[in-house]
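2024-03-11 09:14:02 DEBUG pipeline.ingest accepted 1 chain
2024-03-11 09:14:02 DEBUG pipeline.ingest length=704
2024-03-11 09:14:03 DEBUG pipeline.predict start
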Amino acid sequence: MEVTIVAIKPRSKVLSDGEFKLNNYEILLEDNKLPCTNILLDGEPTHLLLQHLSAITGGENDRLKGKRVLYVPASNDETEALYCIPLDYNDICKPAVQNGHQLKAVPSRAAKFITLDKWMLNVINKNDRVNPIAIRLQSWLLDLHSRPGALKFLFSSPAEDRFKWSISNPAFVQNHPNYPFVRKTSTNEDEQLCKELLSLMMNKDRCNIVVANSLFGSSRSFKYKVDRLVRNPHWGKSPSRNILTSSSSSYNINNNIINNNNNSSYNNHLQQYQQQFRNSESNAISFISSSAGRQCMKNNFPLHKSVRLENVEGVRHCLALNYSVLQMNKYFETPLHLAAELGFRDILELMLEVSRVDINEVNHFGQSLLHVAALNGKPQIVDLLLQKGVDTELIDKYNKKAIQYCAVVDNPTANLQDCYRLIKRRFEQPTGYIDVNLMDGSCKRLSSSHSFIYLHSDLAELQLKSHHKPIEHLNSWKTSIIGQFTDQSNDKEEPELYWRRDVLLSLKDENLVNNAIAINYLFIESYYNYTKSLYLCNEKDVIFMSGVIMHLFYGQFNLLDIMIPQHMINKQNPSYWIRNVLEQYKVYSRKLDSNNRALHQLYFLKMCRSLTTYGCAFFTGYIKSKMKASSWISVFLGVNDVGLHALIKSFVYRDMMWCLVALDRICELHIRKNSSSKKPDFVISTKQAKLIDILMKKLREINE
């Protein structure tokens, strides 16, 4: 049988999986063709092909030694045998030597390497019989590149060489690839010792009898006779399924050796085991309560098992023992998603009610409960989730919404169709979620009934109540709202929805907040107000908070505008700020060496909360003093539970009185610091005075 040989080597030492390029490989040609030889039809080709490669590339002198011989798979209609011999990247061809004399090789007939892309181009131009082999070789290499680690194995050293080179037996020193170097550094006594050791090993390795298995390595079929059969009645039953009972009772049944023609004993034992397993589930609750049971179940995801068994009482007990409904097992399943997948509505409703987790929690694949229920066709779960306000717009890691999993099926079942109708009906209803900006420019998806949503523009901002309709107010901003509260031009107004702190939220209630997401939102707003000089603070406060910011921003201390309020940058020389802020940064880092970002944000928030203007709703207006002749000064007006702050000056509720005076186009707040005074000490003029007056009255009532 004629065999075609492809001796291939990489052009570089390092090969990477992925993109396949023809010019990264070279193949060996003889007479400008692939080498060919004949072997026996049922013979082992490895030794013969390696011997032929050695003969055409130098014989006993500097021959090419292949790493291994691999068969290149063929399609059904191809009959030609094609074998690949991988070579080392630094192998080269030298003229053949015969009887000590160098043969005169004809250049056109010499064995030589050529890049794979040039050979493929020649094959295409000639259009001869080698063309199918070229396509076959290219397809095989493409397949190897798609398999991780295949190339590394293809061009690795033979196992026999790796074994010999990795041992320290002196008998194999002569076979070591660095033997010439070893020989120069060794003495005659060392070489003689190596030869004696090798002879001794060869003598001890002699065998008296050698028995060869004629079937080994062949594809011949053979028949076998079974003398006896042993069946395990527990096969197919995981031992962990019986974890809710004493584990010793799971394997009380003795394994019987049964004959091929008698299965009655096995069936009896199997029925006995199944009955025992059913009875064991009734003791699940008592086992959960025991200390041994808790430890055993802790290692085997007890809440997952109770959900899978639809054991409502077991789930209730696990929740009482504070097992998390968001814990993932080895299959990346949470108890919540497992209940949604299996369609256990009562269990899912119980876990949601007790744990009070977010209805939109996702699993390892970014899939919400709605995704899982829709994917598995559980309309009762879909209905429950829609009633609880699940977000139907969520997208998983595969960039799919829940409705897509039940809408693209070729032959949908009745349950999938019901899921699709339920979700589609919700899509036709107005959604309760909107995109809201944070003060750092990022965007979050929040409920439209959120009381922390503000309408914000360059001219004004307005806090919305839970009954307001954000989108409608956003559309009517230019036509009605902006003209009602400001006297500026509204041609270039581009209002947006922003998340801001609820001005009616007291500091006492805010201090109870420990959620990392809420702290992050509050920090973003506080940091924005701080850098825009909306928080009144002295130099000591600025240096302390700058040290915290340095820790958050990892050393950007030379950028003063991200740490120092605008109105204080020019008060001191920049070197003053850098020196003091850097010192505070070092002190703070030594004091609190932690990578918990929420902890550092909380420190910054605590400092901001001590400032008088923290938590303000900000307005724009003008102020002037009635006690002396002065002009109107443009200021930011802040209102919080402390009082009214015309930035650069604050008025506390308990020390002031005010009245609202309506003029032609604007409203004024007349402020008296002394109740016995008949004339106002300060006058604040703004079109937003009515809002300020209402807000101040509410906040004073809250704090009285």
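2024-03-11 09:14:41 DEBUG pipeline.report The chain is about 40% helix and 15% strand.
2024-03-11 09:14:41 DEBUG pipeline.predict end
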